[in-house]
Amino acid sequence: MFFPEDCCSQQKIEIFMLTNTIIFSNQLPTLQYSSTSEQFDETWEAPLSILLGLGRAAGADFIEFFLERHNYISCLAEDDVITSISPSLATGAGVRVFRGKADCYVSTNNLTFIGLKAALEKGLAILGLQLPTANAFIPEINLEIFRDYASRRGKDSWLGLCSSIQEMGEVLLDSTGQLQKKVSHVQSRRANYFRDWQEVLVAGSDGTFARDIRLTQSVALNVLCADGANRVSIGDRTGNTSDANFLRTWDAEKSAATVGESAGKMLYADYVESGNYPIIMANHFGGVIFHEACGHLLETTQIERKTTPFADQKGQKIAHESLTAWDEGRSENAFGTIDMDDEGMPAQRTLLIEKGVLKNFLADRAGSLRTGHPRTGSGRRQNYTYAAASRMRNTYIATGEYSTQDLFASIDKGIYCKKMGGGSVGATGQFNFGVDEAYLIENGKITKPLKGAILIGEAKEIMNKVSMCSQDLELAPGFCGSVSGSIYTTVGQPHIKVDSITVGGR
Amino acid sequence: MPNIQEIASRAQENAHKLGIQKFDIYGSIVDETNVQVDQGEAKQVKASNRSGVIVRVWNEDNTMGVTSTTDVDSSGLELALKTAYEASFFGVKEHVPDFSPEATAPLENQSSEKFPQAPVNQLIEKLVSAEKELLSAHPAIKGVPYNGLAQRDIDRFYLNSAGALRNESHSFASIYLYSKTEEENKRPRSAGAVKIDHSLATLDINGCIKEAAEKTISHLNYEKIESGKYQVVFSADAFLSLLGAFSNLFNAQNILDHQSLSKPEDLGKQIASPLISVEDDGLHQANIGADTFDDEGTPIRRISLIESGVLKSFLHSAGTAKRLNSQPTGNAGIGAKVSISPNFYHVFAAQSAQHELSLATAENVILIDELQALHAGVKSLQGSFSLPFDGWLVNKGIKTSIESATVAGDFLELLQSIIYVEKEVEFTPGGVCPRIWVNELSITGE
What we know:
The structure holds two protein chains of two kinds.
Chain A lengths: L8 H9 L4 E3 L20 H13 L4 E17 L2 E19 L2 E7 L4 H14 L10 E3 L7 E2 H4 L5 H4 L3 H18 L3 E19 L4 E19 L2 E12 L4 H4 L2 H15 L3 E2 L3 E7 L6 H8 L4 H6 L19 E4 L20 E6 L2 E2 L6 H7 L7 E2 L8 E2 L3 E4 L6 H6 L3 E13 L4 E13 L2 E7 L1 E6 H4 L3 E4 L4 E9 L2 E9 L2 E9 L2
Parallel strand pairs in A: 6-8, 10-20, 11-18, 17-24
Antiparallel strand pairs in A: 1-5, 2-3, 2-7, 3-4, 7-8, 8-9, 11-25, 12-13, 12-17, 13-14, 15-16, 18-19, 19-20, 19-21, 21-25, 22-25, 23-24
Helix pairs in contact in A: 2-3, 6-8
Chain B lengths: L3 H15 L3 E17 L2 E18 L5 E6 L4 H15 L31 H16 L5 E20 L4 E17 L8 E8 L7 H14 L3 E2 L4 E7 L1 H10 L6 H5 L19 E6 L20 E6 L2 E2 L6 H6 L8 E2 L5 E2 L4 E5 L15 E7 L2 H4 E2 L4 E12 L2 E5 L2 E6 H6 L1 E11 L2 E15 L1
Parallel strand pairs in B: 7-18, 8-15, 14-21
Antiparallel strand pairs in B: 1-2, 1-4, 2-3, 4-5, 5-6, 8-21, 9-10, 9-14, 10-11, 12-13, 15-17, 16-17, 17-18, 17-19, 19-21, 20-21
Helix pairs in contact in B: 1-2, 3-4
């Protein structure tokens, strides 16, 4: 037992009693840890708790380690050949250090104790903090009992149960074969599948110590059709999280039929005449309207940047009274479903808007610290190279009171946006999204197909124009890119009517 | 991270152990720091040191598999080689990728210069100062919500079992500033600028501030635009982004996959106005930190894509060059399926126009500064686009900012409708290009 020279008897007793949980700074170079490299488990507790303690002893207010192992594969079928199989393996870690409300983030591929310590030291130095002097106490952080969602929910076996490369190839070639049968005037057929397996471990100086496994899979079909001067490119995507059997149960024939139907109609579509129209947006991926026009603006990330018009409108009416909207990470198998966020907090079900009134924002740890809004389990990131930020999960407009027929009957001339492309929202609150499949509505009836439409508007205004919501809520997988990278999300809604919106076209 | 010689040596050892005769590896190490500020204080600082390699392995049947990994120690490389070998039995049997025939050809003008990285507090200091100066440019500018100052060192290499070994290093520094305005009874407006250079010392921070401020102020007084057909002038940035969105026109892999607006027999066809020429010139002096070899080790070079409106050549990987009886052009991206992308567009006037046009005298033209939502509003395989933009209505030199509008058209028709290519080019991080005048496009006002 080693005691500093100036240690009094009382202190020696205290140190003796606390021997198991306190080390001295000059012991650090002698520490050896061999954590399990094949998976993240309790063997990581000791080194991480020491490193967290080191950071706190250096004067940081909060430290968090995010460790990641990543096993990804994608497979591409073009016409009747598998042209690409791309496996990718990665391990990495990020350490986030807070001093007051300022923070820094350092990422590394080196997950040894020395590597993680070096990353921590770099982070501390960036914030003007130094490692404790010789003989300083370094109380390790007492982490919670290991919260292992992966083991509790049987996720450890997922990777081994997923489809083999052989199976992937067979399913995709079958699907491009289905496209050949279901689609006419085909110039090229593609089927693309990916499986993204991610194991994460989060340890924080507030005691957070949690592990999870995420399994995200998606398959997309795409055709390019041409008939003379007429060309159309149409796709359909299905996605799932949590089901190792996803590819085995995916209905390729149904997906190909959907693509075929859309392609057949859109190949000969006229270009939309630009103007202001009432529109009906379909359910499923139509939910991108809420995602872009409102969802992003309810992230605390946007409050921090002062790029949301809703920052001080909690409790106030920001949307039409027919609109209620949720963001949650709980829907079974939905693309944005997570047991815990990337900061170790269980994903919550967050009511964003209730009958037009703003109820909650989406907050990660930093967002909560800087804006005062409570955390919602929304801290997400693409991978270890990013600090987490408040992001969406499964975001959708709730079912309404009307039937779909009611919506169409209310429109003399408008546009039915059946299938949406992507979109974005800018710093000023201006949003936009592309429409992949649209139809003219005349006297309540769908008439001719239209192409080339893009919808633009102001976030503050558009939510007050969603005047009718139907009852057929459906969710759709999507990818969202923002400050913490590209993440998997779900959009969704029932059929909705927007009273008026600008449609850009020819 | 081990150095290249160590990786090469470990790769050879592991390949021999696994009985692999033919393989190649592309890898990179990135060391970067970037800072963001908010109202005079550091908001977030990020630092990272990351490495990664992509390994391709050919088996005894000469089919190929690939794996990418961040683990470049001996066991990581062994696992990557093994996984790639297993995947190779599912690889394509026709048009199997091969080493580039130019992987050992001499490189032109190679320079591997790295500049020392400035300490983080210096980055923060400079960015805080830049933010302050931008905020003080006009009382309406209330924030700079999107800002960043970064510096980055990249080391990259390519090696193969036939003895090719290439490596190079670069340093970059970059700054972006996007401001936001607030004025009573007016919509918020936003504009920004980006600058890149080799190091912090040479980075034109003042130029970035000035450009962001001038653009923002020019958008303060805005008006709605009436929908209709207009003569349109694309800024360098805007035209380059549109050209990039339709780069399948020149992409030999896209062409072979029937995923392009071009066909192989389109070479020699007049696809654009004779006023315009386009090159892919990765070695252009304005291309900061230009790579000298692509991911297959092929030397990068200048390629004439459009010459006086005529489609002259495509961009090739080693594989597409073989299939189309051409030469690799240094545009390959390594992977299970080799991809192709442009390096650095250089757009310029092919000939003097009969009538020179000028914003000082033109009436009611739309000057598009920046296009948005390219990921949503471009149908690259159909040739059509419908995009929101930032810009002005210009009438005899007087610019009025447009409140909110979209521009729509067909890209091939646009190329044919170019009526003037200005002489003076602008150097941007994405390429070199002058302003491009187009006869008529559809504009929709909100």
